[in-house]
Amino acid sequence: MSKAIRIHQTGGPEVLTLESVEVGDPGPGQARVRHSFVAVNFIDIYFRTGRYPMPLPNGLGSDAVGVVEAVGEGVTEFKPGDRVGYLLGPQGAYSDVRLIPADVLIPLPDGVSDRTASALMMKGMTAQYLFRQVYPLQGGETILYHAAAGGVGLVACQWARALGVTMIGTVSTEEKAAIAHAHGCAHTIVTGGTAPEALAGLIAKRVREITDGKGVPVVYDSVGKDTLMASLDSLQPRGSLVSNGTSSGPVVIDTTLLAVKGSIWVTRPAMVHYATPRSHMLAMANELFGHVLAGRIQGEPQQVYALADAAEAHRALESRATVGATVLIP
Length: 330
Known about the structure:
alpha/beta, Rossmann fold, 2 domains, 7-stranded mixed sheet, 6-stranded parallel sheet, globular, NAD(P)-bd_dom_sf, zinc ion binding, quinone reductase (NADPH) activity, NADPH binding
């Protein structure tokens, strides 16, 4: 029998339970993958709490790396022994072994370890689509990025530096500011202890100082409700707000406000719409791993938990006690 984290109802971390499951042979178009590392992402919390609905009971997690054990009929791209990762497909990555559609698997190149890939698969490809597709950065821009010391944030710091982009990053502590700066974030704004209603004044004021009053052309905001006004007030006229997460709560915008703030563009991107069809996903991975192999982007898990301790990993992530990537070891 294999082990998997499953949930039978939505709620707090306590709803995550470790169970024995039967994993059979792969069917047509499937592969059976044994995981070496399973990534923990904030989107997993959205599924656990019910913000993103899914049928219950169910597994959790969509991001892991490991080795192919077996393939089903019609699978020709992979064979047993191949090292792979994935970030799409059905929930259920919080497990030691699982069946998964083979067409979501991404081959891992020689020179990129499973451990590194586990920290960079979802987070690195998120940075790719934010910086290279949603609002394509050309180099020379100054941008605002919220949660710069988070899992995606530390990759974004490095990617911005590689592109020649000046990144202003918000962080919650001085310690996280130092970490973000070491990864390539040019300017940091420490927001810890600031009331949500005061964030706009703190952040936008500093952004205007850094940009000589002009503001930035784009803000990448994964925080949501608490930073909405700070993001809008930091933008240039006709600037773009990329709302790529809502860790502090959903974003609700009166469209009249967008005109008042300078005819602002707003988008809420999702990975699935940028990583499909499969050719797009593979191209994204190739660009990411190219930077990794060239030494421009590095990543290692900063918090490691046993699969059985997934609830503790969720508590740490929700309390903002983590830096960079968090993974589970089956």
